[in-house]
Structures are given as C-alpha cells and as structure tokens.
Design goal:
Blueprint lengths: L4 E2 L4 H9 L3 E4 L6 E2 L2 E2 L3 H10 L3 E6 L6 H10 L9 E3 H13 L7 E5 L2 H9 L4 E3 L11 H9 L7 E6 L7 H12 L3 E4 L5 E4 L2 E4 L2 H11 L4 E2 L5 H11 L6 E5 L2 H10 L4 E5 L6 H5 L9 E3 L3 H13 L1
Parallel strand pairs: 1-16, 2-5, 2-14, 5-6, 7-8, 7-9, 9-10, 10-13, 14-15, 15-16
Antiparallel strand pairs: 3-4, 11-12
Bound molecules: 4-phospho-D-erythronate (DEZ) and magnesium ion (MG).
C-alpha cells in the first residue's frame, strides 16, 4: 500500500496535485467547518480552486439540513456557493427512495428519525412521511402509547420505510414506533451511519448512534445512503457528469470520505487533519482506508496562491 503523500508546504507537489484533478468533492464537517466555525483560509482556497477552473461539490453526510438550508449556512458563513454544488445524505436518501426503491402508494410513506433536512428533501421528491420533527413525538411515552403501539392503533398503515439520520431529538417513543414499523416489514434505511459527529472541535453522537439501537433490536442492518455508499457516488457522477479519474475526494474521515473515494475508483483522495481521523489511524495495520495525499488543513492547498502572487 503506497504511503500517502504529505503536501503541506510543498508548493511544487501541491501544483502537481491540483493539475491532476478537474473536480473536487469536498466533505464539510471537519474539513470546511466545525459547527459554525469555518476553518482558516477555506474561502480563499475555494476561490483558488475555482480560479483554476476546478469544479467544487460539497458532499456531506450530515442529514440535518437540506440543500437549501445548507446554502443558507454557507452564505451566512461567507462561503460563496449554490444549491447545485451541494449534495447531502438527506438528498441522496430522498432520490434513492423516489427513483430506486419506488414503493407503491399507499404504502410508500417514510417514518423519519431525523431533522428538517430529511423532511425537506423528501418533500422535494414528493415522498410522504411521518415522525421527524413532528412535535407530537417530542414527549415521554404514555400508557396510551404502550397500548396503541402494541395493538397498532397508533401506527400509520401506509409506512413502508424507516429512514434514520442524525436526530437531535431522539427518544424512546420514536424508537418504539420505528421498531414496530420494522417488525411489520418496513424497509430499513439510514442517511449515514457515522459513529460520531465532529462539532465545535469535539465529538458528539453521530447518525449511526440513532440507527444502531434499531439494528440491535431487530438484527437488521440499515442500507446507508451516504458516504461511503456507492449509490451516492453513482448519483453524484450522474448529476455532474464527472470523470472519476480526474476527481478527488477531500475528507477528514477514513471510513466514510476516503473509503468513498477509493471504492468509487476516483483519481485521488486527500485527507485533512482538522476533523475525525489522524495520521496514526491510516498508519495502523488495520486501517479501513489509506488516503493518497494529506495536508494539515484544507487551506494548505491554497498556499500555492500566495506563492504565485509572490512570484509575479
Ligand atoms: O453523524 C453525522 O451525521 C456525521 O458525523 C456528520 O454529519 C458528518 O458530516 P460530513 O463530515 O460528512 O460533512
Ligand atoms: Mg467530515
């Protein structure tokens, strides 16, 4: 296994790296930002990539926001982009359900464990859903619930799929409904199964911690539709008509971002050390994936801009 090439501070190597790719798939949490903190030099680096005619696509597993909601976040943080450049796991899941799963009405409703991002992307594909941010689920379970969930009187007969994403309001009541739908044969999907969520330079429970209890209860593993799922890669390739050999995946997590790029047979993968994984993780004998290149932070790529300015 070739050792990853360290690019930070090596202007010639960075220029050579940039010349190899036309499209950069950019992870968000841990690469662009940590919560609402944008890493230093990110905006200038995006400018540099675009000034060299590179296509930038933001590919995030974070399902709490839709493309429109992400555009608001990017704009609010001073990062120029548009919804066409944003491809999240909530969108990836919605197009999988509407264009591949294609459940027949009326049993085509989705029981959502997640936030508004999933709901808005399901709406954009005209997929009916229940659960999610519905306030009637944000409460403790009651004796009426125990009875109504057990005898099915409180369940929606049209639910054919359970979709689990990062749910910041998960509780026993929601898990109880989801369990019953899965026991009744609903398809088990997840936007992503990241174990942790890098936020504010620390770690919080990831989306995987939402679907995992249901997997434990049912013995069923969800089909995950975010990175490293190749269903997502195929959808991105189709949407952007990209040449995989001229495309580089940039990420902070080995078992999602880097694995996604490698299994997608992309021309390259670049790991940044501002998020989940560190160098020791890919140097470990049982490393899940090894990047082709790495930098301390994304803006190390942008250093070539300063260099060419100093040269001119
Ligand atoms: O738990 C999650 O959903 C993930 O930690 C988070 O969303 C990762 O987002 P990404 O790094 O793919 O932008
Ligand atoms: Mg990340």
């Amino acid at each position: 296994m070739a050792q990853p090439k360290y690019l930070t501070g090596d202007i010639a190597a960075i220029n050579e790296f940039l010349d190899r790719f036309d499209v950069f798939l950019l992870d968000c949490d841990g690469v662009i930002w940590s919560g609402d903190h944008v890493f230093e030099g990110v905006v200038e680096t995006l400018e540099l990539l675009r000034s060299r005619g590179k296509k930038t696509v933001f590919v995030t597993n974070n399902s709490t926001k839709s493309r429109e909601e992400y555009l608001k976040k990017f704009t609010g943080l001073g990062i120029p982009t548009n919804t066409e450049e944003i491809f999240g796991s909530a969108y990836s899941s919605a197009i999988y359900i509407s264009r591949i799963l294609k459940q027949e009405a009326p049993r085509n409703k989705v029981f959502v464990l997640g936030e508004a991002g999933i709901e808005n992307e399901l709406r954009s594909e005209n997929i009916p859903f229940v659960g999610g941010t519905d306030p009637s689920f944000r409460r403790d379970i009651t004796p009426e619930d125990w009875t109504g969930i057990a005898d099915g009187s409180l369940l929606d007969p049209d639910v054919g799929c359970v979709l689990a994403g990062l749910d910041l309001h998960i509780n026993y009541l929601k898990l109880s409904h989801a369990l019953q739908y899965l026991r009744r044969g609903a398809v088990f999907l997840a936007t992503n199964v990241d174990s942790t969520f890098p936020m504010n330079h620390n770690f919080f429970p990831g989306a995987g911690s939402i679907s995992f209890p249901l997997a434990y209860m049912t013995g069923q593993q969800p089909l995950a539709l975010g990175k490293p799922s190749q269903a997502m890669m195929d959808a991105i390739e189709g949407k952007f008509q990209l040449d995989r050999a001229r495309t580089c995946m940039v990420g902070d997590r080995l078992n999602t971002d880097i694995k996604f790029g490698i299994e997608g047979k992309l021309g390259g993968t670049l790991a940044v050390l501002t998020g989940v994984n560190k160098q020791a993780d890919w140097e470990a004998a049982d490393a899940v994936a090894v990047p082709a290149f790495y930098v301390d932070k994304l803006s190390d790529i942008g250093a070539v801009a300063h260099d060419s300015m100093q040269r001119s």
